[in-house]
Amino acid sequence: MRDPEERLAEIEQRRAEGDLRVGAAVTEVGRWLGRGAALLVNLFNPRVIVLGGYFARLADQIIPVAQAELDRLGMTSAAERCGFAASTLGFGAAARGAVNVVIERVLSDPTTIAFRPS
Fold this sequence. Notes:
Layout: H1 4-16, H2 20-44, E1 48-51, H3 53-57, H4 59-73, H5 76-81, E2 83-86, H6 93-108
Parallel strand pairs: 1-2
Helix pairs in contact: 2-4
């Protein structure tokens, strides 16, 4: 399995070289993100949707397309208040967040850790 950073570098290189298929694929990702965002906005009314991982690195191409789709499909007042932002935390952000949740839980109640005497 290839490293995500390597795959993303290849995508960026092929796009920079003018590969039309890559450009079309990135645009399609933006469309689908915008459609999904419209559902979230219509249900939960968030103010911002943060893109991470691949999406964050390609945000300059994805966000305009996703925002246009959100504006088209979202309820007007909710869609107008919501925007997209790119995370700056990198590919490990989700893992770090999950670890933080576990650490906080253990620190707040150390009895959550099962102790097995040896």
